[in-house]
């Protein structure tokens, strides 16, 4: 439908691609498969990575941290479906994540449903909610859409923190009802199982987004992202396509909420707030919006950095004067500032970085010649 | 009866607070297409600036003239921050709306964290001058005096902005720029110069809102800006960006709906009722504020 026009390859591209071309091309599935195998076999490795992780790779603390990174990786990928692939600026993604987590927690606590039934029902609920709210919100475009989704998410956030009928636990949140969860997913001894659930979720979300983006629907999304009016002029109504992306994104996010509930053993209202959606946006933009690995990479790095900064925050800056040490002990201050700098100096995120370096080197070479 | 009067005046006070935030936000958004998430940061800076000046600045204090001085200091801090943000962060990114939003998002995350690092996460008690303590009898209802102060401040800002818009050359350029930026540029007027001005005005209004919000809530916290900002966004969507009056009416409507629903139903439902009003406006007016500009908006 929307095809790339213009010159396919300029002479400069040819010389740049010259070196890799002599290498035998790997099939497209090779890198994802290798990453997946590496992640899946991680609990069997006892390697220690000094400086990066405190214990061995298969120690519960390290696995837990990586599982966290993966859950947020999957969630950021579902957000990237909206932001990077279709160009919808939604500020309400936290709502669907929280909807999945809270619905699952409530179903298991109040109705004592077993985990699979609760998971299925809460993903359904999250998908339906995003379908309904998306149908209203997508009547507006651009920045108005951002504000409207933000308002919807805020309503959800208020609802959760007001604790109606003592259901949501207010500021305290809810803990997982371990009685109805299979024993394999409970306790520190079983961190590896929880880790595999997180790997499965991240892989599923990523695969779903990749598959959808390369399908015919994905081509319309690409067109909407580039120029929505032109898509409409070509005779395709963008609205159902945008709503489809919104719904799939919401559904994937609510599945992420269920996984998050399992991995952390509970939910707190922090995942309902607007700040949480903003951090998702930061993750996606940090990695590179609309790219294959960007959201996963950005979310992993962000979560890891926030966790480690919180861990080392207090003592590692103790030698510095108070007025430097105090702001540096706030992870959000460091990450927010770094993000602003990144927007300036590395637009396109981390995945665009190798290309930028390569083109900078090429420019220098041509300048010398 | 007295309850209704109390609710109306309190609602007007809250509406005044919303107007102080939303007026700057809608000016910035209307003229520059920047969804300014850093607005909450200006608000927090204004609140903390006033609090700090009232406690530590020589000459300023928690009462009388000293408080006015503290207020001026807080507003100056917010204005300075807004001007700096426009010059150093927004200006280099002109024409790239996505990046501008991302940069303000980064600032909105970093600033509360910075305030929290310096003054802690706990709410700080805000000084309350003698003049606005206690209540006044209006039609049989006891109205807290600080609500009246808020209404006065919003009315003053409304008048000042109205005079600026209708009587000054810069106001004319800003109004024309909101309507059609490309045309103003084509007429040979550098509309970008007014961007800084609009940002400074918005920052000053937000800082004033932060300080007066401190009076309204009695405390200041680093994250107060964000929750107020969301309601200000709702006001901007309902009121549109083209007229100051629309913004004022939307502020008052949102606040009154919130107050009445919170009082007559369960607490917290009022905030949700506001979101329902927003959804209704979107469904019936097909686009709200976006209808005018959606064709040229790229973000």
UniProtKB/TrEMBL annotation, chain A:
This is Branched-chain amino acid transport system permease protein. Keywords: Cell membrane, Membrane, Transmembrane, Transmembrane helix. Its main location: membrane. It comes from Nocardiopsis flavescens. Pfam families: BPD_transp_2 (PF02653). PANTHER family: ABC TRANSPORTER ATP-BINDING PROTEIN, HIGH-AFFINITY BRANCHED-CHAIN AMINO ACID TRANSPORT SYSTEM PERMEASE. The keyword Thylakoid does not apply. InterPro entries: ABC_transp_permease, LivM-like. GO terms for cellular component: plasma membrane.
TrEMBL record, chain B:
Belongs to the binding-protein-dependent transport system permease family. LivHM subfamily. Pfam families: BPD_transp_2 (PF02653). It is found in: Cell membrane. The lineage of its organism: Bacteria, Bacillati, Actinomycetota, Actinomycetes, Streptosporangiales. One of its GO terms (molecular function) is transmembrane transporter activity. The chain crosses the membrane at residues 6-27, 34-53, 65-89, 101-119, 148-165, 195-217, 229-257, 263-283. The keyword Membrane applies. Keywords: Amino-acid transport, Cell membrane, Membrane, Transmembrane, Transmembrane helix, Transport. GO terms for biological process: amino acid transport. This is Amino acid/amide ABC transporter membrane protein 1, HAAT family. InterPro entries: ABC_transp_permease (IPR001851), BCAA_transport_permease (IPR052157). PANTHER family: ABC TRANSPORTER ATP-BINDING PROTEIN (PTHR11795:SF442), BRANCHED-CHAIN AMINO ACID TRANSPORT SYSTEM PERMEASE PROTEIN LIVH (PTHR11795). It is a multi-pass membrane protein. Its main location: membrane. One of its GO terms (cellular component) is plasma membrane. It comes from the Bacteria. It comes from Nocardiopsis flavescens.
